[in-house]
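DM from R.C. (forwarded with permission)

"hey, sorry to bug you on a friday — could you get me a structure for this? deadline for the figure draft is monday and I only need the backbone to look sensible"
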Amino acid sequence: MGGMALQLAVSLAGIALMVGLCRLLFGAGETTLSAGSLTARLARDVPGFRAGRIAIGRDARAALVENASDGAVWLALARGDGMVTRKLARATNVVRDGERLALLLNEFTLKRAELDLADAADWEARLRA
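My reply, with the result:
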């Protein structure tokens, strides 16, 4: 039993060393969102996309972007060193607490997203309309 515990400890130490080395060499890999990166990504991914109103959360890790072509609202989330986008359904469940919006999504891979926005009340009304 003692040999197995030692083998486990050595394996965990090796993994921790590799993770630490990767983080040292390549950084944490976290990105923040900007209006330019959002519009470029959506223009590339969505045919006919034209950026309308954009609201970026205070931490720059989540944003809402309106497609001026059709009025659809897109959610963008910074994940690692990339970005995840989702077109929000008209029936998106929105809960507002002051300047914090919580979007309860009916999706297996993304159940909830939260944004701190100065104009949270305006975006809540827009998403409920």
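R.C.: lifesaver. Strands lie at 51-56, 62-67, 73-79, 82-87, 93-97, 100-104, 112-116.
me: no worries. The chain has three helices and seven strands.
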